[in-house]
């Protein structure tokens, strides 16, 4: 059954609401271990869109050679990753609730587990795009048509290795490679502009030779259009997604205390009520 | 396993060309056996003797420019998709410039990338210590899951290249020595990762050496013989996993263990051997010979080795002294 674009958008929006509910429960479960709530929430609409309607993948055949690959280069964004994998059928709700428990599959940064849809281990910033280039070159060599999506933080773009990779992807004209920059403008200790100003980050990607688009990272329709528009440029695609760190909850939006924090019962209860209302409206 | 056979003629040719060119020739020869091979270079294809390979197999070569962190990441991405991946650049840049990429991608995730560190040790002494590498064994050895090799001569470089390509796991191979380097292996032999080669028997002392110091130790054993000291020599071409059985046997048979390496005395072969010796009841003492724990002045290769006492005569004298003070 093919969905209309409106139906697809509504489906992704509902998925994103359920993901935010998973995230609250995981963060509460993590308790005093704390969780990277802010950067997990800012990517939810992006991962919901990718897994819900963009990527070719099959949770019943996670190692399918022609699947599209997703790499969470900003490894601390796991809450927005595991919740998407759960909604896509790779992880059960029970597995999600083992988040940050001893010997869990679902650590505070992803640990490679291809049966569960986790393509690589990440956590050290600035490494995912290079991996994505290798994966994309392998696809070209094997004559497979899959796409590779690499999700990075804007703070992560402080790392020099990101720009080594940016240069190489354009050099090899990897038009099946997509870099997504989660432009939430906050990083661990504050505003990116005061810590290390990235300036016009889209212009930088363009200057490195990428086809570059800027979108509202919480506008599902805009994200869909950015990811699925025909790319005739022959160049890799950079999607600079303008996002809000902590998106979805009044207590966390644009509040950098939630970069890595302990979710309190009060915050949890208020957020759940707001989510339930949104879900019943949806 | 696709192997490379040593003949006297080949050994002589390789030794004239040096370990880097030998490595490149070995890759070219073995590339015919591996459809899935990819070789990455960081603007180092000529330095690695890979110019002919690059021209004859362009589809198997990826040039990443002067960007070692990116090279290791791309290599891991390719390896994760089942390709057989080699990377080559100068040893300090191959190991330390991209150390964390190696740790996460090859150590933690265990993507089977085979790294080759060129011109390691102090062969590039006249260029200064930016280009020398006296720490790679130590650094690579301390990362879990990485196999560390250090061939003794050009023949062993060719054999080890074949073994590395057949090996299913991350590896670091350290190449030492100049052109016109001495031959240890003039005939074919069995090379096995993790198994030291006993090149000479002897009842008094065992010299355990790696890289170019294997040949120097064989000569030192000849000198010791003139002094009535019977020295065994082991080629410890695999630093990790270290051949515990060979070390244990040496400890049972010898009054003294001497390790000899063209590497900092901290953390390399000497340390790897000592970690085993220390666990053996009644083991003999160990003399650790290597480069001093400092950055020296730019000098010729031979002069740096001589200053550090890494010559046959000096190895002989230090061994005799250590035996006398026992």
Strand order of the largest sheet of chain B: 2-1-3-4-6-5-10
Q: Tally of extended strands of chain B?
A: 12
CATH superfamily of the largest domain in chain B: Thiamin diphosphate (ThDP)-binding fold, Pyr/PP domains
Number of domains of chain B: 2
Count of strand segments of chain A: 7
Oligomer class: heterodimer
Unreliable runs of chain B? none
Find the structural class of chain A using helix and strand composition: alpha/beta
Q: SSE order of chain A, as H and E?
A: HHHEHHHEHEEEHHEHEH
| Major β-sheet profile of chain A | 5 strands, parallel
Low-confidence stretches of chain A: none
> What is the CATH architecture descriptor of chain A?
3-Layer(aba) Sandwich
Can you count the helices of chain B?
Answer: 13
Portion in beta strands of chain A: 5-15%
Care to describe what's here?
The complex is a heterodimer of chains A (282) and B (326). Chain A is an alpha/beta fold. Chain A has a single domain, classed as 3-Layer(aba) Sandwich (Rossmann fold), CATH 3.40.50.970. Chain A contains 11 helices and 7 strands. Chain A has helices at 5-30, 37-41, 44-54, 79-87, 93-96, 128-141, 160-171, 192-195, 201-207, 220-228, 265-281; strands at 69-72, 148-153, 177-183, 186-187, 190-191, 211-216, 237-242. In chain A, the strands form 2 sheets. A 5-stranded parallel sheet of chain A has the order 1-2-3-7-6, sandwiched between helices. Chain A has a two-stranded antiparallel ribbon with strand order 4-5. Chain A is globular. The mean pLDDT of chain A is 96. Chain B is an alpha/beta fold and 326 residues long. Chain B folds into 2 domains: 8-174, Rossmann fold, CATH 3.40.50.970; 197-324, Rossmann fold. Helix content of chain B is 40%, strand content 18%. Chain B has helices spanning 8-17, 19-31, 51-56, 68-80, 91-95, 99-108, 136-141, 154-166, 213-226, 244-253, 269-277, 301-307, 312-324, and strands spanning 37-41, 61-63, 84-90, 113-118, 147-149, 171-174, 197-200, 205-209, 231-235, 238-240, 256-264, 286-291. In chain B, the strands form 2 sheets. Chain B has a 7-stranded mixed sheet with strand order 2-1-3-4-6-5-10. In chain B, strands 7-9-8-11-12 form a 5-stranded mixed sheet, sandwiched between helices. In chain B, α3 (51-56) links the parallel β1 (37-41) and β2. Chain B is globular, with a radius of gyration of 19 Å. The termini of chain B are far apart.
């Amino acid at each position: 059954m093919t969905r209309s674009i409106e139906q697809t958008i509504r489906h992704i929006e509902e998925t994103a609401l359920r993901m935010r509910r998973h995230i609250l429960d995981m963060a509460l479960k993590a308790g005093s271990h704390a969780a990277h709530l802010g950067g997990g929430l800012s990517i939810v609409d992006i991962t919901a869109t990718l897994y819900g309607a963009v990527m070719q993948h099959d949770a019943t055949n996670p190692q399918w050679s022609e699947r599209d690959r997703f790499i969470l280069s900003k490894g601390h964004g796991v809450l927005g990753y595991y919740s998407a994998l759960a909604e896509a059928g790779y992880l059960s709700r029970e597995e999600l609730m083992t988040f940050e428990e001893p010997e869990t599959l679902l650590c505070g940064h992803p640990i490679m587990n291809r049966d569960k849809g986790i393509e690589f281990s990440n956590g050290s910033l600035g490494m995912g795009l290079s991996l994505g280039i290798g994966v994309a070159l392998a696809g070209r060599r094997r004559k497979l048509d899959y796409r590779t999506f690499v999700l990075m933080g804007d703070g992560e773009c402080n790392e020099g290795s990101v720009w080594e990779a940016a240069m190489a992807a354009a050099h090899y004209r990897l038009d099946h490679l997509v870099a997504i920059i989660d432009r939430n403008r906050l990083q661990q200790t504050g505003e990116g502009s005061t810590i290390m100003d990235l300036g016009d980050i889209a212009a930088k990607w363009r200057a490195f030779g990428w086809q570059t688009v800027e979108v509202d990272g919480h506008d599902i329709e805009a994200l869909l259009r950015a990811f699925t528009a025909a790319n005739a440029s022959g160049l890799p695609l950079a999607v600079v997604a303008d996002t809000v760190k902590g998106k979805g909850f009044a207590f966390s939006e644009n509040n950098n205390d939630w970069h890595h924090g302990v979710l309190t019962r009060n915050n949890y209860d208020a957020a759940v009520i707001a989510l339930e209302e949104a879900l019943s409206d949806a | 396993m696709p192997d490379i056979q040593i003949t006297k003629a080949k050994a002589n040719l390789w030794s004239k060309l040096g370990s880097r060119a030998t490595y490149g020739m070995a890759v070219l020869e073995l590339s015919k056996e591996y459809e899935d091979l990819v070789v990455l270079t960081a603007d180092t294809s000529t330095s690695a003797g890979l110019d002919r390979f690059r021209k004859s197999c362009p589809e198997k070569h990826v040039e990443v420019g002067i960007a070692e962190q990116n090279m290791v990441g791309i290599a891991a991405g390719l390896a994760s998709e089942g390709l057989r991946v080699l990377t080559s650049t100068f040893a300090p840049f191959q190991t330390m410039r991209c150390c964390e990429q190696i740790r996460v991608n090859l150590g933690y995730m265990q993507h089977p990338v085979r790294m080759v560190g060129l011109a390691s040790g102090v062969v590039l002494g006249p260029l200064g210590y930016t280009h020398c590498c006296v720490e790679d064994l130590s650094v690579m050895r301390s990362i879990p899951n990485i196999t560390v090799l250090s061939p003794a001569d050009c023949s062993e470089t060719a054999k080890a290249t074949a073994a590395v390509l057949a090996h299913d796991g991350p590896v670091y191979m350290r190449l030492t020595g100049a052109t016109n380097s001495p031959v240890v292996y003039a005939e074919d032999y069995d090379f096995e990762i993790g198994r030291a080669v006993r090149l000479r028997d002897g009842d008094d002392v065992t010299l355990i050496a790696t890289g170019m110091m294997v040949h120097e130790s064989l000569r030192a054993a000849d000198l010791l013989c003139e002094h009535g000291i019977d020295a065994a020599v082991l080629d410890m071409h695999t630093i990790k996993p270290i051949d515990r059985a060979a070390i244990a046997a040496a400890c049972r048979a010898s009054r003294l263990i001497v390790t000899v390496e063209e590497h900092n005395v901290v953390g390399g072969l000497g340390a790897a051997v000592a970690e085993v010796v220390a666990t053996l009841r009644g083991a003999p003492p160990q003399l650790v010979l290597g480069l001093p724990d400092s950055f020296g002045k730019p000098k010729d290769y031979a002069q740096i080795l001589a200053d550090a006492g890494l010559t046959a005569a000096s190895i002989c004298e230090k061994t005799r002294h250590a035996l006398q003070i026992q």
